Amino acid sequence: MAQPWDDTKALKLVRDRFSMMQDFRSGYEANWNSFYKLYRAKRAKTRTDKSGRRMSNLFIPKVFSYIETEMAKIMDAFFASRPVIAVQPREQKDIENARIAEGLLDYQMFHIPFFELKFSNFLRDHVA
Known about the structure:
Helices cover 65% and strands 0% of the residues.
């Protein structure tokens, strides 16, 4: 039968595990802090040139650039061909209604800016 743990043994185990965890994390924490600052778009202190004038301190994260580039490609691919949504009739008598529904959807996609705005917001949220 196993011996019951005494307090000193348990405390030593917890301290050993804690120091192992600290040793493991120490190599990563600097990167984590740096990545978090990049994600939050934290800027460096204001810089000045030789004459003392303030210099531009713009910060555009790479992730933002990548997402906006992919957004343009996806939007172009999605809206490149018309109709964007094809409506297929189920039966012979549905052909005219399918053509009308397809025309209505096509009109809504290209003449109502609300759809393009909502679609682009949806993509921005889901591309990354």
